[in-house]
Description:
The chain is built from 14 helices and no strands. The protein has helices spanning about 10-15, 20-35, 40-45, 50-70, 90-110, 110-120, 120-135, 140-160, 165-190, 195-220, 230-255, 260-265, 265-280, 285-305. The chain has one domain.
Amino acid sequence: MRPTTVPKRQTGLHLLRNNPHLLATLAVVGGAVGIGFVPIFVRLSDVGPIAVAFWRFALAAPLLFVWQRMSPPRSAQHEPTPQTFSPLLLLPGLFFAGDLTFYHLSIHYTTIANATLFTNMAPIAVSIVAWRFMGERFRPLFITGLALAILGAALMIRSSANSGGSHLLGDALGLLSPLFYAGYLLTVRRLRQGYGSSTIMLSAALVASTALLLLTLLSGETILSTSWQGWLLLLALAWFSHVGGQGLITYALAQLPAALTSVILLLQPVFSAFIAWLWLGEAMGPLQMVGGMFVLLGIFLAQRNGTS
Length: 308
């Protein structure tokens, strides 16, 4: 009689190694959680909202430099050399600086839920820009998604009207944020044809931190934290949320279908709103909750049926 072999029990680590799809799914969830803490860190920081955006990039740049230097050369295409530097590499950083300027100011004036949901409307802005300037056509459900997102935003703004003019200003700033993020995504998509993601992220961090430093100085905001807790918040924003969160999402994008990744990332505004309620006592009213659900559904439909 042949001896029977008992199969080894797989540990959690072995299971993840043998299931890259599961590992990538957990990575994008972790990335969404990391980015979900951004508005909390911005709100709790003792420096100005634009200064927070500056430190987010400036403190992340050294880690991004190490990542860029450790990244293996691309096999399909050679990375452009410094002698063939493209001016287009400046655009992601400028667009990202504009995005975070309006997003952080929005967090300063309105609720975290409103600011975060509005900035997550970037996929809709991307589709509109691609339609207007790149000749891409809308797919059928995009119009439905757009209408739902606009209706949801209107309900959330109506809810803000009861809280005063500063909340309405914050909502308006939040609605400008995704326009700049759309520019960031579209230029990154173009640059990915010749540059690696680490190079693009490092370039964006250097350009954005320079632009945001100038904006901070011109605005007269407080730029230096006065406590060690304040510096810890800025480090957490740069290393945990920006490098860690964005890095996990970048890894997952190479392993998972873009549609699945975009759906999972909708956890981010939900998580941010939950933490804002739990940590800062920012409860959402009924009208705001209904509007938020419409915005999320609209984003979901727009991402799956954007342009062709």
